[in-house]
Write a structure and sequence with these properties.
The protein is mostly helical. It folds into three domains: 142 residues, no CATH class; 49 residues; 36 residues, no CATH class. Helices cover 67% and strands 0% of the residues. α1 runs antiparallel to α2 and α2 packs across α3. The termini are far apart.
Length: 249
């Protein structure tokens, strides 16, 4: 018995078309690409809604990271994708309704799917430092004519030059700070040494002054002793008169 062939139309999903097993990396994914990848994981790979949305956001973030564009945390972008899938399911349930309102909702949903699945942070345009990256985000939100190159050599060279310049400046600042600290330490050491030296000199001078009495004092002492003869000394002893009293008179 021959196996039945599965055609592309058999795997098409209403409104969104064919699921995709991977996301294109040359542009930021649109809402259509995001939901198609999500549906592939959910319906083809049989993952849960949360696992499918988490894996989808993880792949989308890789592309945004390569584009150097700041994006919101996954705890915010995952519910955003699941909300998109909920909108799709609501339309899917009411697809058999023939009201004008239903047709308008379907048309509006299809138009929105062509826009960027935008997970940029609120201040992304202010945070982006390179003009080319800023222009790329603006383009992806609009006409989507720009593409991510595998390697932008000119931009990479520019970024490398900026990084080298920043590193050189940092090294110079470090050297200047080291020299300043070394200079302050030298001045402090010289001041301490000078103060210690002066104190030692003063101490030595003081000790010399105490240990060496003046020569004039020694001379006066010697002269006083020579003025009193042995006979006079005996007389002074008998009369109870001191030697100093005789000298002072």
């Amino acid at each position: 018995m021959a196996k039945s062939r599965v055609t592309r139309s058999d795997t098409d999903f209403w409104l969104i078309g064919q699921p995709i097993s991977s996301l294109p990396t040359t542009q930021l994914p649109t809402m259509l690409q995001a939901i198609n990848f999500f549906v592939y994981l959910y319906r083809i790979e049989n993952k849960t809604i949360r696992d499918s949305s988490t894996a989808t956001i993880k792949e989308i973030e890789k592309i945004w990271l390569a584009a150097r564009i700041p994006f919101i945390p996954s705890r915010n972008s995952i519910p955003k994708l699941e909300k998109l899938f909920t909108q799709y399911n609501n339309l899917l349930r009411s697809r058999h309704r023939q009201s004008d309102k239903s047709r308008q909702n379907e048309q509006q949903f299809l138009e929105n799917l062509q826009f960027l699945f935008d997970i940029a942070s609120i201040d992304a345009l202010e945070k982006i430092q390179i003009d080319q990256d800023r222009e790329f985000l603006k383009d992806q939100r609009g006409d989507r004519k720009m593409y991510l190159g595998s390697v932008d050599k000119t931009l990479a060279k520019k970024e490398k030059k900026i990084a080298i310049k920043s590193q050189t400046k940092q090294k110079q600042c470090t050297k200047e700070e080291f020299r300043r600290q070394a200079s302050e330490e030298t001045v402090t050491l010289e001041s301490s040494t000078s103060s210690t030296s002066n104190s030692e000199e003063e101490k030595e001078t003081f000790e010399v002054s105490i240990s060496k009495p003046s020569s004039s004092g020694i001379k006066r002492k010697r002269n006083t002793a020579d003025l009193i003869s042995p006979a006079l000394a005996a007389t002074l002893d008998r009369t109870k008169i001191s030697n100093s009293a005789v000298v002072l008179q």
